[in-house]
Design goal:
Layout: H1 2-14, H2 17-33, H3 37-64, H4 85-91, H5 95-98, E1 102-106, H6 113-126, E2 131-135, H7 136-148, H8 152-161, E3 165-171, H9 178-191, E4 196-201, H10 208-211, H11 216-227, E5 230-234
Parallel strand pairs: 1-4, 1-5, 2-3, 3-4
Helix pairs in contact: 2-3, 3-6, 7-8, 9-11
Amino acid sequence: MELDNSIEALCKELKLSSVQESYHHIAATASKEHWQYAQFLEELLRLETNNRLGRSKYVLTKLAGFPVIKTLEQFDFNFTVGVNRRQIEELSTLEFIKRNENIILLGHSGVGKTHLAIALAYQAVQKRIKARFITVADLILQMSNAKKEKRYDSFIRQAIMAPALLVIDEIGYFPMSKEDAHHFFQVISKRYERGATIVTSNLVFSQWSGIFANDKVVTTAILDRLLHHSHIINILGDS
C-alpha cells in the first residue's frame, strides 16, 4: 500500500496520468506473461505517449474551429473537374506548410472548396500542427473589434500568426470596405513567407478588385503575396 501511494504521488508530480491509472493492470499482465523490466517500462511509456498524443490532437481540433470535420477520404474526385488527385495527395504530405506556401481554391459554391480546405487542415491537426479555420466575414469582424478595443497587435500575434496553417473561407461572398480590405491585407502581408495559408473564393482573380472596395493597389498587393509560392486549384462542376 505504501508503495502504491508512493507511485501515485510520483505520477502526479510528473503528470503521468495514464501511467497512474493503468500501471496496476499492466504490472499484472507483465507478471503473468513474464515480461522483462524493459518491456514493462516500454509499455507504460507507450501508453502515456499515445494518450497524450490523443489529448493533444483533440485540443488542437477544438482550437482549429472547424465547422464540421471533413477528410480527404470523403472527397469525391469523380464529381469535380480540375482537382488533380495526385496534386492533392502531394499537398496532403503537408510539406507546403513547412515551406510556408499557400493554396488557393477557386470555384462556384458547392464544388468542394471548403471540403478540401478543411480536410487538409484536419490532416495537419492530426500531425499535431496548429491550424485555424475562419470565414473571411468572421475574420474581418474580429479584426475590426480588435482595432476598436486597442488589441490589434495582440490579435495579429495570437490569431493570425500563431497557427502554422490558416484557412480563410468564402472570399468574394461579400464586398469589403476600404478599412476591411486593409485588415485583410495585413493578414496576407504578415503571413507572407512566414506561414501557410489556404483561401477559398467563388470569384476568379480578375474579379477580386470588386471584393476589396475596387482598390486596385491593395488588390494587387494582396494577390502578389498570395500567388507567390502558391498552389492554385480551379474546381469546376455542378453544386
